[in-house]
Amino acid sequence: MGFVVLHLNEPGRLPSRTALAVRHIISIREEADDAGTEIKLTDGTLINVTEPFKTIMEELARVSNSSEPT
What we know:
Blueprint: E1 3-8, E2 16-21, E3 25-30, E4 37-41, E5 46-49, H1 53-66
Antiparallel strand pairs: 1-2, 3-4, 4-5
């Protein structure tokens, strides 16, 4: 199973990182006003991260390609 490591965007807290299992990500939405990117997981949890939408999509593509069987 592939994982991506992203930086959480939690107002009022120090920056931290979390690893998300790619198969649990169901949607990615860029927030307005540079508020980061919102990721929705299969259990309905919403996570805000600092990485831009494009960066996340590139990382997901990289992880997906590297985890394909050869």
